[in-house]
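Minutes, project huddle
Topic: does the predicted pose make sense with S-adenosyl-L-homocysteine bound?
PN asked that the exact inputs be recorded in the minutes so nobody has to dig through chat later. Recorded below.
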Amino acid sequence: MTFPATILTLYPDMFPGPLGLSLAGRALAEGRWSLDARNIRDFATDRHRTVDDTPAGGGAGMVLRADVLAAAIDSVATDAPLIAMTPRGKPLGQPRVRELAAGPGVTILCGRFEGFDERIFAARQIEEVSIGDYVLSGGEMGALVLLDACIRLLPGVMGAASSGDDESFESGLLEYPQYTRPQQWEGRTIPEVLRSGDHARIAAWRKHMAETETRLRRPDLWERYDGVRVQSPSGARRLMKDE
Ligand code: SAH
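Predicted holo structure (tokens), as shared on screen:
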């Protein structure tokens, strides 16, 4: 089974870019996902292959034309969801990433300049996604981020199949702290419990630490977290101090 990704962009050469390397690159070579990067400019109809024009009402920059965007969108014959990268879109989160990775693929529309003629959103079924509260110069980096997050979840892509479950955001918590050899480094040691071989104690410690990290670093996530808490917030604070 392959996960088809179609990208509509003015810069198809940006793909696969970093997704041609490492985990995603290997998965691409193995056919676990496929890439079809189409140049929006190929759907312009005039002699100069114009894709943008000045904003109606005046102002700086250029706006991508709805008619050209529609032609690009309509050229894609898949039942995969169509996502436009926009700063005003719904912030991307792990739950949506998981849904997308389990679905029939994804088509991603990348903006440039001042963005899209608003009418495209009324005329086509488009989900708007943001990758954070900052402004990029184009949607391509956002598309790479979204794709990377999906690809690592595809069957057979991640080495140890289990390494997904404990990760940050999967349970609504951040991940617990990780350590590896050497056991002593610059006078610092690995927490004793992790060397105890007592799997129940280790699991309890990790849950405890995941909760602590989440509560301290991301009160917004902690607020929404509805899992069974193994500790009271005051207990978490005590543990942090002891470590
Ligand atoms: N004028 C727009 C910004 C355009 S930035 C505004 O003020 O909202 C140009 C393009 O970059 C956008 O069309 C979008 O595709 C992409 N982009 C910029 N920031 C983004 C973000 N945070 N998330 C997703 N895409 C973004």
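Observations noted during the meeting:
- The mean pLDDT is 93.
- Residues 85-88, 110-112, 114-115, 130-132, 134-136, 138-139, 142 surround S-adenosyl-L-homocysteine (CB under 6 Å).
No decisions taken; revisit at the next huddle.
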